[in-house]
Amino acid sequence: MTSNNPAEQSAPRYVRLTIELVAEITDEQALKAAALAQVQDDEYLDDAERAESVEAIEVDPSGSLAHFIDPVALLGDVPGVELASATWESAHTEYDPDDETWEEHELD
Which domain holds residue 39? Predict the structure, then answer.
C-alpha cells in the first residue's frame, strides 16, 4: 500500500546494508606497517584510542585491515543518502575457494 501523504513519503527510511568480504592477506608485515601509519596519522583518534589501536595491530596484525574500511567513502557520493551509523570488524575465517560447500552468500 502506498501513501499519498507527502509527510509520510518524505520521511527518512533506514536501510541496513550488510556486506561480507573475504580478503587474503598476502603480506602481513606490509599490512601491519600501513595500518600503524594510518593510526598514527588519524587526526580523529585521541591518545588512548591511538594506543589501543596500535596494541590491537601488534597483537593481531590481520585486524589491521579494519583500519582501512571507510563507510563514509563507500556512501559519500550516493545522492540522497546520509550515513546514520556504521560498525565493522575483521576476523580470521576458514576459506577454501575450491570447496564447493562454502556458501558465498550465506548469512548468519
Answer: 26-69
Query: Which grid coordinates belong to 44?
Result: 580523529
Neighbours of 46 (CB within 10 A): 8
49 within some domain:
yes
Whole-angstrom distance, CA of residue 56 vs CA of residue 69: 16
User: How far is the C-alpha of 1 from the C-alpha of 81, rounded, in Å?
Assistant: 24
Residue type, 104: E
Instruction: Identify whether 10 is part of a domain.
Output: no
**How many domains is the chain built from?**
1
Percentage of the chain modeled with pLDDT above 90: 29
Model-level pTM?
Answer: 0.67
Tell me if 53 sits within 8 A of 46, measured CB to CB. no
* 74-88-60-48 Cα dihedral, nearest 10 degrees: 90
Give the chain's radius of gyration (CA, Å): 19
